[in-house]
């Protein structure tokens, strides 16, 4: 299964890992911004500032999980089938939360009543927090292993997925994304809301360090192998560097280090998993590896050439989008937009 010297199942294992890394880094700060509405949104203008920081990019960020799922389905159909059947309820809850969040972004401004906006703001907060935690629970279970039968079917229950280790994984992603989002707010805003976001990132960051360190150490001692420890060390150092940069007000540096921390933490989990893709906790013989879960050599070859052509184009487009919408957003921005809209409506009359 070689293409120009590459073992294709291994190559696609790491491509899937890269896609999930992209998703967690990008949609991670989306989730974080959504969760900060409760802490930074003192009035409707504040909340609109927060939502507008991710308004142009949140839906583009979510496409990464679609691409990751499609790549998983095509490259490792056995892994996809076991994962989506065994984790069906958890993944369904994530999907419903993402739908609720997306609908809320579009509907909260459709009516002027405060109660109407408050309901959709609550949906944004919940729709951000639930996936942020459940993704961590899911990946912790993948690394830890779940009970599988000889045909690779999950034979546990939903509550079997809520082990202490898995819940710690969920709390880790929840706090990482929350802090990531708060740092992103400091990068995209100015004035008082930026200062409050900086203080919030410092407070949540202190909790994140403790929780993430506990999870990485537990993972390392129980499942760590290969490149796990070097990647985990980079993740830990980057998280500390991000928080120190935030304290100095260097939001660009802080955000970069937060992205590196999340990326290397996810890479460390995949390193701990490799060469398995779905270990069986009850009988190692029932587990899935990159070899017995992979598609045919022809399928992986076609996918490799397709990825080589289109992935750079997707990255270029996303980079261009972030460049276009790089400007900071302030309360004045929102208030001026309201005045312009009112003037336009008056002229139309």
UniProtKB/TrEMBL annotation:
Domain of life from the UniProt record: Bacteria
Compartments in which it is found: Cell membrane
Keyword line: Cell membrane, Electron transport, Heme, Iron, Membrane, Metal-binding, Transmembrane, Transmembrane helix, Transport
Membrane-crossing segments per the record: 12-37, 49-73, 79-99, 120-142, 162-188, 200-221, 227-245, 252-274, 302-325
Protein's gene: cydB
Family label: Belongs to the cytochrome ubiquinol oxidase subunit 2 family.
Name this polypeptide is given: Cytochrome d ubiquinol oxidase subunit II
Gene Ontology biological process terms in this record: aerobic electron transport chain
């Amino acid at each position: 299964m070689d293409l120009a010297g590459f073992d294709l199942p291994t190559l696609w294992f790491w491509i899937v890992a890269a896609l999930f890394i992209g998703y967690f880094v990008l949609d991670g700060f989306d989730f974080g911004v959504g969760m900060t509405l409760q802490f930074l949104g003192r009035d409707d203008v504040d909340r609109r500032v927060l939502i507008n920081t991710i308004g142009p990019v949140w839906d583009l960020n979510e496409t990464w999980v679609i691409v990751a799922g499609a790549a998983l389905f095509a490259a490792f159909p056995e892994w996809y089938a076991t994962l989506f059947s065994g984790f069906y309820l958890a993944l369904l809850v994530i999907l419903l939360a993402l739908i609720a969040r997306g609908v809320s972004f579009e509907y909260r401004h459709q009516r002027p009543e405060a109660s109407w906006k408050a309901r959709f703001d609550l949906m944004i907060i919940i729709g951000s927090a639930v996936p942020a935690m459940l993704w961590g629970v899911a990946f912790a279970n993948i690394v830890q292993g779940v009970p599988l039968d000889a045909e690779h079917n999950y034979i546990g229950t939903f509550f079997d997925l809520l082990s202490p280790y898995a819940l710690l994984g969920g709390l880790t992603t929840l706090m990482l994304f929350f802090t990531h989002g708060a740092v992103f707010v400091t990068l995209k805003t100015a004035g008082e809301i930026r200062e409050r976001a900086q203080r919030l990132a410092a407070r949540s960051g202190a909790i994140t360090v403790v929780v993430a360190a506990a999870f990485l150490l537990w993972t390392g001692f129980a499942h760590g192998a290969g490149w796990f420890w070097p990647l985990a060390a980079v993740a830990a150092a980057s998280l500390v560097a991000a928080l120190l940069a935030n304290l100095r007000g260097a939001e660009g540096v802080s955000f970069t280090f937060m992205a590196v921390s999340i990326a290397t933490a996810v890479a460390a989990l995949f390193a701990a998993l490799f060469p398995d893709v779905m270990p069986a906790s009850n009988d190692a013989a029932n587990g899935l590896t990159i070899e017995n879960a992979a598609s045919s050599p022809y399928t992986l070859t076609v996918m490799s050439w397709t990825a080589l052509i289109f992935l750079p184009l997707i990255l270029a487009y996303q980079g261009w989008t972030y460049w276009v919408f790089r400007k900071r957003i302030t309360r004045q921005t929102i208030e001026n937009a309201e005045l312009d809209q009112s003037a336009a409506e008056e002229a139309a009359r």
